[in-house]
Amino acid sequence: MGGENQSSAEGFLIVGFTDLPLLRVPLFVVLLLSYLMTLLGNLLIMVTIYYNSHLHTPMYFFLSNLSFIDICHTSNIFPQMLAYFFQEGTHMSFIECMLQVYFFIASIFTELFVLSVMAFDRYVAICIPLRYMTIMNKGVCVQLAVGIWAFGLLFSLLYISLISDLTFCGSRTINHFFCDLTALMKISCSSTRVIEVLTYVLGVIITLGSFTLIITSYINIISSILKIKSSGGRQKAFLTCASHLTVVVIFYGSAASSYIRPTSTYSMKENKMVSLSYIAVTPMCNPIIYSLKNADVIKGLRKFLLL
Ligand SMILES: *[C@@H]1O[C@H](CO)[C@@H](O)[C@H](O)[C@H]1NC(C)=O
Predict the structure, then answer these.
(1) What is the CATH number of the domain that holds 176?
(2) What is the pLDDT of residues 262-295, one digit of tens each?
(3) Considering only CA atoms, which of 63, 91, 93 is closest in space to residue 241?
(4) For the chain, how many structural domains are there in total?
């Protein structure tokens, strides 16, 4: 018996949606569909961009990166969550839990960086179009992409080194549907002060930094668009950044909704629902927004599907 206690003490019990019995079946159906749509939509975007040479521009390469992140981000959470959906909780080992937190944080950072680079790309394309080819050349884009991924994976490593040091002496039950960082900190008996301060400082620096870059880019973009004489040209310039702007608004909207109130005032039920907005909704929206509003992607998609 002692051995059993020991082994369960090494991992965590993930509660899942057991506290929402009435919502369970509809939630399962919605989440399964949204996961399948996320996979399908983002794969379609990546394949379409890959096979259409007219989409081989920095904007679409970074869009393809965004789709790739969305696939990783959702696949980090969904398969395990759906597989054990109707059980009264899932056991997760300490390592599995740390890996999930690691990839969760890495994908959020990376997505932020990619969205910022995409804003910069639109800024160069619209405000200084004559220098676009020299500024956003292949080498620069590859360097940017490598930098984004390296930073995302590294920042997350810093985090995980602090989190893996936490000790757990009381309850090992995580009231969430994955190994959520805030839920994890709630049950830890060591001080989480350093992690909280780090989250706050990094969150403010990175979010404000990327937000400032995006806002500055768009202020410049809008003022250039307003200077365009022909209304056709104005509309065309506007359309090329409308999809990106929509994605940015959704991403920051869902991120803000989880940060605006301190987590301690949330009930865990609310916390789960808020998490779903950036785990299930945002990754599914990106391909829809880009393919519905973008004539070039639609053209590429048609060509690809009729092949
Ligand atoms: C990400 O972007 C870089 C730079 O444009 C590109 O070379 C690379 O193929 C992209 N990766 C994916 C998975 O889309």
Answers:
(1) 1.20.1070.10
(2) 555 567 777 787 788 778 888 888 888 877 667 7
(3) 63
(4) 1
Distance 59 CA to ligand 1 centre (A): 10
Enclosing domain of residue 136: 2-305
Residues 6+ apart with CB under 8 A from 55: 48, 49, 296, 297, 300
| 181 CA → ligand 1 middle, Å | 29
45 and 290 Cβ atoms separated by less than 8 Å? yes
User: What are the counts of helices (DSSP H) followed by strands (DSSP E) for the chain?
Assistant: 12, 3
Cα-to-centroid distance, 50 and ligand 1 (Å): 10
Question: Which atom in ligand 1 lies closest to the alpha carbon of residue 64?
Answer: 14
Atom of ligand 1 nearest to the CA of 58: 5
**Whole-model pTM?**
0.85
Ligand 1: centre distance to CA 110 (Å) = 13
Q: Which helix (H) or strand (E) holds 14?
A: strand 12-14
Residue nearest to atom 12 of ligand 1 (CA): 65
